Amino acid sequence: MQPDGFQKVVFFGKARKDSSIPVAGVNYRSIEPCMKTSIAIYPGSFDPVTNGHLDLIERGEKMFDLVIVAVLNNAEKQPLFSVPERVEMLREVTQKWPGVEVDVFHGLLVDYARKRGAGVILRGIRAISDYEYELQMALMNRKLEPRLETVFMLPGESFSYLSSKLVREIAQLGGPLKDLVPPEVEQRLRAKVL
Ligand code: PNS
User: Fold this and answer.
1) Average pLDDT over residues 104-132
2) How far is CA 139 from CA 110, 132, 147, in A?
3) How far does the centroid of ligand 1 lie from the alpha carbon of residue 24, in Å?
4) Nearest atom, ligand 1, residue 47 CA
5) Are residues 124 and 149 in the same domain?
C-alpha cells in the first residue's frame, strides 16, 4: 500500500519526479520501456579536440548523467593524430568531469549507441552552414534507430568559427593557437608539425 500522494513506481529507465504533484512526497511517473536514459554520446573525429568541443562537453555534462565522447576510428580518413593520441588528449582535458568518458567506436554510430545503452546523440551546431550536414545525419540516424534522439547544442559564440581543420592549418603554418585549444593540445600540435 502506497501512502497518500504516492503511486506505485514502475519504470525501466531513469525515474523522474512528476512535477504535476507539488506535495512534499516524491512521486515517480511510470516510464515506458524504451531507450530513455541519461546517457549521451558525443561522437566525432576530434582531430584534435578544440575549446569548442570542450565547451559543448561541459554543457552536455550538466544535462546528462554520462557523456561518452566517442572518437570515430575511420580507416578512410588521413588524420593528423592517431586514434590513441586523440583519445589520450581527450582524456587529459576531460578528466575534471567525472560524468565524462572517452571511448573509440567504429562502424555505425547507432550500433555503438545501442551497445552503450545511450538514448541521445549530442552534436554541436556552430553556424547555419553546419545545419544541412547535421540534419542529414540526424535524420539518417533516426531512420536507422528511431529510439535514438539527436540533441543539438550551441557552443559559446566565441567558438562559432572554430574547427579542428582550421586549428590543424594554423598549427601547420606556425600561427597562434591560444584560446583555440587547451595548452596540452597546443603542445602536441607544435610537436607534431615540427
Ligand atoms: O567530427 P565529425 O567528423 O563531424 O563526426 C562525424 C561522425 C563521426 C559523427 C559521423 O561521421 C559518424 O557518425 N560516423 C559513423 C558512421 C555512421 O554511423 N554513419 C552514418 C551516419 S548518418
Assistant:
1) 96
2) 12, 11, 12
3) 46
4) 1
5) yes
- Give per-residue pLDDT as tens, 12-45: 344 444 444 444 555 555 545 555 569 999 999 9
Whether residue 164 lies in the annotated active site: yes
Range of the domain at 29: 1-33
Residues 26 and 58 in one domain: no
Tell me, yes or no, if 82 is annotated catalytic: no
The single-letter DSSP state of residue 105 is: E
Overall pTM surpassing 0.85 (yes/no): no
* Ligand 1 neighbours by CB, cut-off 6 Å: 43-45, 72, 108-109, 137, 140-141
Catalytic residue among 116, 123, 126, 188: 126
Q: Indicate which residue of 8, 62, 77, 96 is catalytic.
A: 77
Q: Which residue has the cell 603554418?
A: 173
Q: Can you read off the three cell numbers belonging to residue 88?
A: 589520450
Are residues 29 and 53 located together in one domain of the fold? no
The 8-class DSSP code of residue 147 comes to T
CATH code: domain of residue 166: 3.40.50.620
